[in-house]
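Here is my example:
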Amino acid sequence: MARPTTESTQIEEAIVAVQSGSMPLREAARNYGVPRTTLQRRVQHRVKCRVSKVSGCAAFEPVMVKQEENSHAVTDIHGQSGTSSEEITENKETGRREINKIGHKRSASHLELHGQGPQKVINCKIRMLCTAAGSALDELSNEMIRQGNCIYKLGLGQSPFPIPQCIVDELRANSHQRDYLPVAGLPELCADIAAWGTDRLHVNYSRDDVLVGPGTKELLFVLQTVYYGDLLLPNPSCTSYAPQAAIAGRNMMWLPTHAEDHFVLRPEVLEAHCAKDPGRCC
């Protein structure tokens, strides 16, 4: 049974929008009213057909990605003494071009690697994600410093304080320990964390309620993968959590915060949202 002309036109327009880089796949599916999985399959098929027509190796057309204005997050203040004005200008322009690439969702042109090397087995949800803005900016600023530019870093969330000497001494004393540890963490450590949480939060915890991990990003991603329900994020929040939700296939919603509260989520905002659907998991 042939598709209605209107539906075929909508799908075709959505494919063109994705392949031209004017909008990401999810947005195109929503704007043109077509199923996202259908659009994704059609884009991949179209790209595969284009690649198969080229003998030997694939030829790819450059895709222009629409950039946002005033997206400069790192500023070159001045170059080293003795650097010519032409070199300084060139470094600035290079830095601006690199900065403008950061944080933008990749267009479907990246799917043109389908069938070549390891890209063909990478989940499309991963391939369509943008570069991690925080890490990319840090790498870019370090490269600009190596080139002799003066860069003022405003922070990546790393602690500026030295590691306490008692921890350094314990790590040194136990450097010979090389056995695998319990998956949930050392039982003694879990028990201490549970006691701390019980005392500070006034909720009874046991060590079985504690999972120790290498960082909050990994642990929060595990939580999103394990539990059902929507993900509610305060706006603004860490740049990692929304992409994690996309990878996990989790429905995500933003909750507003305010400067006068130091951007801490108000309890009544959360309560009002949950009251809309009391039986839904969040």
